[in-house]
Amino acid sequence: DEASRREAADEEVHRLRQDLELTKNELADVNREVRTMNERLRAAETAATEAVKDAESARMGSVADRCAKSDAEEAAALLTARLEASERRASMMEAARDDAMTQRDAATERLEIEAEES
């Protein structure tokens, strides 16, 4: 009957709101992770640049200089890969949020139509 349909729709809207809130929280976590990775990437890039300058000033005369440059470049590459993974995760979380919002809007529209029909 109408009351049970309305209650089911209300429960669905409540569930969708909870899902949306969870998605928002997860997206905020991902955004924090992206910011952290960006900071680490900048630090690694700075370290790589400094290592390159140091290596160039020493004319790459020693194995230690070459290793330091290589390690810094590897660290920068690793942080770049992590940043890209975080950005992909953020994109997926945004898509999930958008889907939850679409579901919520559809449920709200159904409730409004049912209310108008009754």
What proportion of the residues form beta strands (DSSP E)?
Answer: under 5%
**What's the pLDDT, averaged over the residues?**
83
* Distance between the ends: 11 Å
How many H/I helical runs?
A: 2
Query: What letter string, H or E per element, gives the SSE order?
Result: HH
How many domains in all? 1
Radius of gyration: 25 Å
Uncertain spans: none
Keywords: Coiled coil
Coiled coil: 6-89
Region (Disordered): 93-118
Structure report:
Helices cover 94% and strands 0% of the residues. With 118 residues, the chain is mostly helical. The protein contains 2 helices and no strands. The model has no long low-confidence stretch (mean pLDDT 83). It has one domain (2-117).
Could you provide a short overview of the structure?
Keywords: Coiled coil. This protein has 118 residues and is mainly α. It has helices at 2-57, 63-117.
Question: What descriptors fit this protein?
Answer:
118 residues, mainly alpha
Layout: helices, strands, pairs:
Blueprint: H1 2-57, H2 63-117
